[in-house]
Amino acid sequence: MRKILILSIVCFFMIGSICNGQQANNENLANVHKEDIKNLANEACKLYEEEQYDEALEKIDKIEKYKKDEHEEVRMYALEMAYKLDYYRAMIFAQKKEYEKAIYYLKINGMLEDKNLYEIAKIYKITGQMDEYIYYLKKMLEKEEKIASCAKEEIQELPYAIREKYGLLGKEFEMEDKSRLNKFSYKSFAFMHIGVVILIGVLFYNIKKR
Protein backbone atom coordinates (compact mmCIF):
# COMPACT_ATOMS: atom_id res chain seq x y z
CA MET A 1 0.00 0.00 0.00
CA ARG A 2 2.83 2.33 0.89
CA LYS A 3 4.63 1.56 -2.37
CA ILE A 4 1.47 2.28 -4.34
CA LEU A 5 1.11 5.64 -2.60
CA ILE A 6 4.73 6.56 -3.35
CA LEU A 7 4.33 5.55 -7.00
CA SER A 8 1.16 7.65 -7.28
CA ILE A 9 2.94 10.71 -5.91
CA VAL A 10 5.90 10.20 -8.25
CA CYS A 11 3.58 9.81 -11.25
CA PHE A 12 1.69 12.96 -10.26
CA PHE A 13 4.85 15.06 -10.21
CA MET A 14 6.10 13.52 -13.44
CA ILE A 15 2.86 14.30 -15.23
CA GLY A 16 2.92 17.85 -13.85
CA SER A 17 6.48 18.31 -15.01
CA ILE A 18 5.65 17.00 -18.49
CA CYS A 19 2.65 19.33 -18.75
CA ASN A 20 4.67 22.33 -17.64
CA GLY A 21 7.38 21.46 -20.13
CA GLN A 22 4.82 21.12 -22.92
CA GLN A 23 3.28 24.48 -22.02
CA ALA A 24 6.70 26.15 -22.06
CA ASN A 25 7.42 24.61 -25.46
CA ASN A 26 4.09 25.88 -26.79
CA GLU A 27 4.81 29.40 -25.54
CA ASN A 28 8.27 29.36 -27.09
CA LEU A 29 6.88 28.13 -30.40
CA ALA A 30 4.18 30.82 -30.35
CA ASN A 31 6.82 33.50 -29.76
CA VAL A 32 8.90 32.15 -32.64
CA HIS A 33 5.89 32.32 -34.96
CA LYS A 34 5.03 35.86 -33.86
CA GLU A 35 8.59 36.98 -34.50
CA ASP A 36 8.44 35.41 -37.95
CA ILE A 37 5.21 37.30 -38.68
CA LYS A 38 6.81 40.57 -37.60
CA ASN A 39 9.85 39.98 -39.83
CA LEU A 40 7.64 39.07 -42.79
CA ALA A 41 5.64 42.29 -42.33
CA ASN A 42 8.78 44.44 -42.23
CA GLU A 43 10.15 42.71 -45.32
CA ALA A 44 6.84 43.23 -47.15
CA CYS A 45 6.89 46.98 -46.41
CA LYS A 46 10.49 47.28 -47.53
CA LEU A 47 9.80 45.41 -50.77
CA TYR A 48 6.78 47.61 -51.43
CA GLU A 49 8.90 50.76 -51.07
CA GLU A 50 11.42 49.22 -53.48
CA GLU A 51 8.52 48.57 -55.92
CA GLN A 52 9.10 44.80 -55.79
CA TYR A 53 5.38 44.18 -55.67
CA ASP A 54 5.21 40.45 -56.38
CA GLU A 55 7.81 39.70 -53.75
CA ALA A 56 5.93 41.88 -51.24
CA LEU A 57 2.72 39.96 -51.91
CA GLU A 58 4.54 36.67 -51.29
CA LYS A 59 5.56 37.86 -47.83
CA ILE A 60 2.00 38.94 -47.04
CA ASP A 61 0.65 35.58 -48.22
CA LYS A 62 2.99 33.82 -45.79
CA ILE A 63 1.49 35.86 -42.96
CA GLU A 64 -1.98 34.76 -44.08
CA LYS A 65 -1.05 31.12 -43.40
CA TYR A 66 -0.48 31.95 -39.73
CA LYS A 67 -4.18 32.77 -39.39
CA LYS A 68 -4.69 28.99 -39.10
CA ASP A 69 -1.97 28.47 -36.50
CA GLU A 70 -2.77 26.20 -33.55
CA HIS A 71 -1.98 28.99 -31.08
CA GLU A 72 -4.70 31.59 -30.65
CA GLU A 73 -2.29 34.42 -29.86
CA VAL A 74 -0.44 33.70 -33.11
CA ARG A 75 -3.69 33.68 -35.08
CA MET A 76 -4.73 37.03 -33.58
CA TYR A 77 -1.30 38.57 -34.23
CA ALA A 78 -1.35 37.37 -37.83
CA LEU A 79 -4.84 38.84 -38.25
CA GLU A 80 -3.69 42.19 -36.86
CA MET A 81 -0.62 42.39 -39.11
CA ALA A 82 -2.54 41.30 -42.19
CA TYR A 83 -5.11 44.03 -41.50
CA LYS A 84 -2.37 46.66 -41.35
CA LEU A 85 -0.80 45.34 -44.56
CA ASP A 86 -4.10 45.38 -46.49
CA TYR A 87 -3.40 49.00 -47.50
CA TYR A 88 -0.10 48.01 -49.12
CA ARG A 89 -1.77 45.05 -50.74
CA ALA A 90 -4.44 47.37 -52.18
CA MET A 91 -1.84 49.80 -53.54
CA ILE A 92 0.03 46.93 -55.17
CA PHE A 93 -3.10 45.70 -56.92
CA ALA A 94 -3.85 49.26 -58.04
CA GLN A 95 -0.36 49.45 -59.59
CA LYS A 96 -1.04 46.14 -61.32
CA LYS A 97 -4.43 47.55 -62.50
CA GLU A 98 -6.33 44.85 -60.65
CA TYR A 99 -8.79 47.45 -59.44
CA GLU A 100 -11.46 45.18 -57.95
CA LYS A 101 -8.91 43.61 -55.61
CA ALA A 102 -7.51 47.04 -54.79
CA ILE A 103 -10.93 48.37 -53.78
CA TYR A 104 -11.66 45.21 -51.79
CA TYR A 105 -8.53 45.55 -49.63
CA LEU A 106 -8.92 49.33 -49.26
CA LYS A 107 -12.42 48.80 -47.90
CA ILE A 108 -11.25 46.09 -45.50
CA ASN A 109 -8.34 48.21 -44.28
CA GLY A 110 -10.56 51.25 -43.77
CA MET A 111 -13.57 49.42 -42.35
CA LEU A 112 -12.94 50.20 -38.67
CA GLU A 113 -11.97 53.86 -39.15
CA ASP A 114 -13.82 54.65 -42.39
CA LYS A 115 -10.58 55.70 -44.07
CA ASN A 116 -9.03 55.31 -47.56
CA LEU A 117 -12.00 57.19 -49.04
CA TYR A 118 -9.86 59.26 -51.42
CA GLU A 119 -7.97 56.23 -52.73
CA ILE A 120 -11.24 54.38 -53.34
CA ALA A 121 -12.76 57.41 -55.08
CA LYS A 122 -9.75 57.74 -57.39
CA ILE A 123 -9.99 54.11 -58.47
CA TYR A 124 -13.70 54.49 -59.23
CA LYS A 125 -12.81 57.59 -61.27
CA ILE A 126 -10.13 55.71 -63.21
CA THR A 127 -12.52 52.84 -63.96
CA GLY A 128 -15.33 55.22 -64.99
CA GLN A 129 -17.75 54.16 -62.26
CA MET A 130 -19.21 57.64 -61.82
CA ASP A 131 -22.00 56.82 -59.34
CA GLU A 132 -19.54 55.19 -56.92
CA TYR A 133 -17.00 57.97 -57.49
CA ILE A 134 -19.51 60.70 -56.56
CA TYR A 135 -20.75 58.65 -53.59
CA TYR A 136 -17.27 58.56 -52.07
CA LEU A 137 -16.65 62.24 -52.80
CA LYS A 138 -19.79 63.07 -50.82
CA LYS A 139 -18.59 60.84 -47.97
CA MET A 140 -15.31 62.76 -47.98
CA LEU A 141 -17.20 66.05 -47.62
CA GLU A 142 -18.48 64.82 -44.25
CA LYS A 143 -14.94 64.31 -42.93
CA GLU A 144 -12.32 66.70 -41.57
CA GLU A 145 -11.35 69.80 -43.54
CA LYS A 146 -8.25 68.28 -45.13
CA ILE A 147 -10.21 65.37 -46.61
CA ALA A 148 -13.19 67.56 -47.51
CA SER A 149 -10.87 69.94 -49.40
CA CYS A 150 -9.63 67.06 -51.58
CA ALA A 151 -13.24 66.24 -52.45
CA LYS A 152 -14.00 69.87 -53.31
CA GLU A 153 -10.99 70.04 -55.61
CA GLU A 154 -12.21 66.92 -57.41
CA ILE A 155 -15.74 68.34 -57.68
CA GLN A 156 -14.54 71.65 -59.14
CA GLU A 157 -12.76 69.78 -61.92
CA LEU A 158 -15.95 67.98 -62.97
CA PRO A 159 -17.88 69.19 -66.03
CA TYR A 160 -20.87 71.41 -65.24
CA ALA A 161 -23.35 68.83 -66.56
CA ILE A 162 -22.09 66.15 -64.16
CA ARG A 163 -22.09 68.54 -61.21
CA GLU A 164 -25.65 69.51 -62.06
CA LYS A 165 -26.74 65.88 -62.42
CA TYR A 166 -25.40 64.91 -59.00
CA GLY A 167 -26.45 68.09 -57.21
CA LEU A 168 -22.95 69.49 -56.71
CA LEU A 169 -23.50 73.12 -57.73
CA GLY A 170 -23.90 74.79 -54.31
CA LYS A 171 -21.30 76.99 -52.62
CA GLU A 172 -20.73 74.28 -50.03
CA PHE A 173 -19.02 72.28 -52.80
CA GLU A 174 -16.66 75.10 -53.79
CA MET A 175 -13.17 75.85 -52.52
CA GLU A 176 -12.58 79.20 -50.86
CA ASP A 177 -10.31 81.31 -53.05
CA LYS A 178 -7.71 82.13 -50.41
CA SER A 179 -5.29 83.50 -52.95
CA ARG A 180 -7.83 86.16 -53.90
CA LEU A 181 -8.45 87.07 -50.26
CA ASN A 182 -4.77 87.35 -49.47
CA LYS A 183 -3.73 89.03 -52.71
CA PHE A 184 -2.33 92.58 -52.22
CA SER A 185 -3.90 95.14 -54.55
CA TYR A 186 -1.42 97.85 -55.55
CA LYS A 187 -4.11 99.69 -57.45
CA SER A 188 -6.35 99.96 -54.39
CA PHE A 189 -3.40 101.03 -52.27
CA ALA A 190 -2.48 103.76 -54.77
CA PHE A 191 -6.03 105.15 -54.88
CA MET A 192 -6.23 105.13 -51.08
CA HIS A 193 -2.86 106.88 -50.80
CA ILE A 194 -3.88 109.59 -53.27
CA GLY A 195 -7.14 110.09 -51.39
CA VAL A 196 -5.32 110.56 -48.09
CA VAL A 197 -2.94 113.09 -49.67
CA ILE A 198 -5.86 115.07 -51.14
CA LEU A 199 -7.70 115.02 -47.82
CA ILE A 200 -4.64 116.33 -45.97
CA GLY A 201 -4.19 118.99 -48.63
CA VAL A 202 -7.79 120.18 -48.31
CA LEU A 203 -7.55 120.31 -44.51
CA PHE A 204 -4.26 122.24 -44.68
CA TYR A 205 -5.77 124.74 -47.19
CA ASN A 206 -8.84 125.35 -44.98
CA ILE A 207 -6.69 125.85 -41.88
CA LYS A 208 -4.42 128.30 -43.72
CA LYS A 209 -7.43 130.15 -45.13
CA ARG A 210 -8.90 130.66 -41.68
How would you portray this structure in words?
- The chain has helices at 2-49, 53-65, 72-95, 99-109, 117-126, 130-141, 145-156, 160-165, 178-182, 186-209.
- Residues 180-193 have low confidence and may be disordered.
- It is elongated and about 90 Å long.
- Among the domains are: 22-98; 116-175.
- The relative contact order is 0.05.
- The chain has 10 helices and no strands.
- It is an all-alpha fold.
- The chain starts with a helix and ends with a helix.
What's the order of the H and E elements? Answer: HHHHHHHHHH
The percent range for helix content is over 70%
Total count of strands: 0
Taking all Cα atoms into account, the compactness measure Rg is: 34 Å
Summarize the main sheet.
none
Distance between the termini: 137 Å
- What is the approximate shape? elongated
Q: What are the low-pLDDT stretches, counting only 5+ consecutive residues below 50? A: 180-193
| Structural class by secondary-structure content | mainly alpha
Share of residues in strands? under 5%
Annotation field: number of helices:
10
Mean pLDDT across the residues is: 82
Brief account:
With 210 residues, the protein is mainly α. It has helices spanning 2-49, 53-65, 72-95, 99-109, 117-126, 130-141, 145-156, 160-165, 178-182, 186-209.
What is the topological layout?
Layout: H1 2-49, H2 53-65, H3 72-95, H4 99-109, H5 117-126, H6 130-141, H7 145-156, H8 160-165, H9 178-182, H10 186-209
What keyword list fits this structure?
mainly alpha, 10 helices, 210 residues
